[in-house]
Amino acid sequence: AKNHGRGVHRFFEPILAAQIRDRRSLEHDLRHAVERNEFRVVYQPQMAIDTGIVVGFEALLRWQHPERGNVSPDRFIPISEETGSILGIGEWVLRETCREAASWDKPLRIAVNVSAVQLHAPGFAELVHEVLFTTGLSPARLELEITETALVRDPVRALAALRRVKAMGVRIAMDDFGTGYSSLSNLRAFPFDKIKIDRSFIRAVDVNHETAAIMRAVLGLGRGLGLPVLAEGVETSAELAFLGAEHCHEAQGYLLGRPGPIAAFAEHTRDAAGR
Ligand code: C2E
Ligand code: CA
Ligand code: CA
Ligand code: CA
After folding, report:
1. Which end of the chain has less Cβ packing within 10 Å, N or C?
2. Where's the EAL domain (predicted)?
């Protein structure tokens, strides 16, 4: 058994070592990515389903690595959360998006993803306040998207931070609703202004009976709690038609627009007459 164990060890070691080296190099590069100007923000429209009007945008981070090319946020956000570099990155995203939104002709909403690490860091509410003041963005136009995992780490601290930003007039959305362990009790315990239902519940909602039943239940929940519901990841017009018929408030997804540079959405952010 001992020899067998050593053999397995020798077999896996090079692969593991390469993975660790790869991870270390990403950790290192992430620490310098802000100052090296490697991040940019893309914007994805959020639409009111009954009117078909774009009411806001979600800001999504993109990292253009000098050698690796585009690295997905699903890969680099967790690493930056573990090393703490998310604090500088998150501050950059918040500042960049608030400045951008403050420059629009129309007072559309801007939704910014906030990591658990940011929410729990001392001074988070002060940072939001300072960025709003510096950029001149009206607090009512800022929405922070928080996932449930952000709340479980230290619920008392998370609640205190959310209350402080809410007191400024900033809105709070529960992101990826339905994918966590205790979505329902978290809805009651935290001061959310909106439910963003995860795209896994939207997929084929128009043909799948189980998915449709869950979707109707969430919409009923939203109505009962007085919270608007946004459906994420809408890809087909049949999905959108189902959501409209069930009185879902807002939708976001490839059908309505892929995330892109804000210039691609100037028809929504700018007044007519080519300003
Ligand atoms: P999320 O907050 O749930 O963002 C939605 C993700 O779904 C985005 O992926 C978006 O591009 C994608 N998406 C939008 N519409 C559709 C659709 O119709 N179909 C499909 N299949 N996907 C769609 P993205 O941009 O790769 O971001 C992945 C995750 O990374 C985000 O999930 C969020 O958790 C995180 N993230 C992105 N930007 C930031 C950021 O600035 N800060 C933090 N803390 N996290 C971020
Ligand atoms: Ca989000
Ligand atoms: Ca989401
Ligand atoms: Ca997600």
Report:
1. N
2. 23-273
Q: To test the ligand 1 pocket, which listed residue (43, 92, 113, 230) has its Cβ within 8 A of the most ligand atoms? A: 113
Dihedrals φ, ψ of 177, to 5°?
A: -55, 135
Q: What is the helix (H) or strand (E) element at residue 71, kind and residue range? A: strand 69-71
Tokens of 71: 């690295």
Name the pTM for this structure. Answer: 0.94
Ligand 3 center to residue 247 CA distance, Å? 20
- Cβ atoms 44, 58 nearer than 8 A: yes
pLDDT at 1 over 50: no
Residue 251 vs residues 60, 191, 275: alpha-carbon distances, Å:
16, 22, 28
- What tokens does 154 get? 């230290």
How far apart are alpha carbons 275 and 268 in whole angstroms?
Answer: 12
162 and 191 Cβ atoms separated by less than 8 Å: yes
Compute CA 206 distance to the chain's CA centroid, rounded to the nearest angstrom. 25
- Cα distances from 193 to residues 2, 162, 207, in angstroms, run 58, 11, 29
What is the H or E stretch that residue 45 is in? strand 39-48
pLDDT in tens, 125-182: 999 999 999 999 999 999 999 998 888 889 999 999 999 999 999 999 999 999 887 7
Residues with CB under 6 A from ligand 1: 44, 60-61, 72-74, 77, 90, 93, 113, 115, 145, 175-176, 199, 233-235, 253-254, 259
Residue with tokens 């998006």: 97
Task: Render pLDDT for 216-253 as a digit per residue (tens, 0 to 9).
Answer: 999 999 999 999 999 999 999 999 999 999 999 999 99
- Look up residue 201 and give its two tokens: 């519940």
